[in-house]
Amino acid sequence: MTDKLTVSVLGTGIMGAAMARNLARAGHTVRAWNRTRAKAEPLVADGAFLADTPAEAVRGADVVLTMLHDGPATLETMRTASAGLRPGTTWVQSTTTGIEAIADLAALAHEHGLVFYDAPVLGTRQPAETGQLLVLAAGPVAGREAAAPVFDAVGARTVWTGEDGAEGSATRLKLVANSWVIATTNALGEVLALAQALGVDPQSFFDAIAGGPLDMGYLRAKSGLILGDQLSPAQFAVSTAAKDARLIVQAGAHNGVRLDVAAASAARLERAAAQGHGDEDMAAAYFASFDENA
Fold first, then answer.
1. CA-CA distance, 128 to 155, in Å (whole number)?
2. What mean pLDDT is predicted for residues 6-26?
3. What is the model's pLDDT at position 1?
4. What pLDDT score was predicted for residue 294?
5. What residues contact residue 165 under an 8 Å CB cut-off, 6+ apart?
6. Residue 3: predicted pLDDT
7. What secondary structure does DSSP assign to 88-109, as a single string?
8. What pTM was estimated for this model as a whole?
9. CA atoms of 46 and 40, how far apart (whole Å)
10. Separation CA 100–CA 76 (nearest Å)
11. Which residue in 135, 214, 208, 218 sits closest to 173, CA to CA?
12. Which domains are delineated in the chain?
């Protein structure tokens, strides 16, 4: 098998578009589709073919990569694409869907004879654009040679979590990782809001923790977006983070764990989105600490 593939990318938002560009730069033939066509059109300059329908996009593809908003959107899109799918095609499912949705997606893959990989990614816009994502993957050993060139093009490293994509082991790890990211982002937003309310210069806080166990690069990077008014373009949007936070809460509830911090984080992100910050970086949850209508 040649390592140059025809890859269909369904969903070209922040992450999907970056992944499609890196696939094209790696020499693969890229066929892209997005519900809002205008968001996919810039990919033409990178050598991608733009399809009008999911079925057109997947026709003749060696690998289908889905990077859509959520599980229901992915299921609907792949059902629409089914007329163009051929048995034996590899499906790399990278949408953060939640655990319950994975079983439905794997069942659809089985119905159409597809080789299914549960393969969410860790990273935001910048590592996506530079092909430095961390790929979390679960799926059969037989057939990984088809998925490997795709993972190599979009990521710096692939961590295999299991051999059955339907079990969702990669998605489970993704939710655990995202729970930390979302909680940390909301906490730093509250730190900056409290500092403002108390008349404390945020730099004095950074100076106090510098070099110690409380210091972290992520804290400084996300704080810099808020303090520097650099929340657009988003690295990881508020609306997407809110969706993921709800998936985390649901996963905990379905497995007998109450996740109070995740629930509060989801509420803060949803409040920030309602204030008009949905398309900004998730650090914009900072604004949920204030009544913007006051």
1. 8
2. 97
3. 45
4. 43
5. 93, 102, 106, 109, 116, 117, 118, 119, 138, 139, 140
6. 75
7. T-EEEE-S---HHHHHHHHHHH
8. 0.94
9. 11
10. 15
11. 135
12. 6-167 (3.40.50.720), 172-289 (1.10.1040.10)
